[in-house]
Design a protein that fits this description.
There is one protein chain. 26% of the residues are buried. This protein has one helix and eleven strands. By secondary structure, the chain is α+β, with helices and mostly antiparallel strands. The strands form two sheets. Strands 1, 2, 3, 4, 8, 9, 10 and 11 form an eight-stranded antiparallel β-sheet that branches. Helix content is 15%, strand content 32%. It has a single domain, classed as Umud Fragment, subunit A (Ribbon). The termini are far apart.
Length: 176
């Protein structure tokens, strides 16, 4: 074999291995997402591009305030991105836009909400293995408040928001 043929063969093998590894990462490790709506503004805006970590919940449970991607409960296909507000076993009430967990007198502190919301919903009793989710743009989000089955099953959660890479880079931690 000539050096050119060996170099070409090596290039083809490197290309095939790269495509294979990229496919595995895309299928089992990271989801690439383009945000199609304003339901999570101003945390995530329409047109933002994100990386979702599929391995986030391999060893940990989802936590309050995690931004998650899950199977669309209304269409049965595609993904939805929302923030976890209520955890399994909790009672959740929304009174004049304020969220109360387990009938506490003090509302949940949600520093990421920029536009006031004044709706009333609930009570919601969150079953084990399920989560109550809402968009940060409460006045423009179709979420657990309005779904027939108000809760996201843990097995339907595909991952947690890790990085917004466009239009600017921002890293997101899980939970609080």
């Amino acid at each position: 074999m000539t050096d050119k043929l060996l170099l070409l063969l090596f290039g083809v093998i490197v290309f095939m291995v790269t495509v294979f590894i990229g496919g595995l990462v895309g299928r089992y490790v990271i989801i690439h997402a383009l945000i199609p709506s304003s339901s999570m503004e101003s945390t995530i805006n329409e047109g933002d591009r994100l990386f979702i970590n599929r391995l986030s919940y391999t060893f940990n449970d989802p936590d309050r305030f995690d931004i998650i991607v899950f199977d669309d409960p209304s269409k049965g296909r595609g993904f939805v991105i929302k923030r976890i507000i209520g955890l399994p076993g909790e009672r959740l009430d929304i009174i004049d836009g304020m969220i109360y967990i387990n009938e506490r007198q003090t509302p949940l502190r949600e520093e990421f909400i920029t536009e006031p919301y004044h709706g009333n919903h609930g009570p919601f009793f969150i079953p084990e293995g399920k989560y109550f989710v809402m968009g940060d743009n409460r006045g423009n989000s179709l979420d657990s408040r309005f779904w027939y089955d108000a809760f996201v099953r843990e097995e339907h959660i595909s991952g947690r928001l890790m990085i917004r890479y466009f239009p600017n880079v921002q890293f997101f931690r899980g939970g609080r």
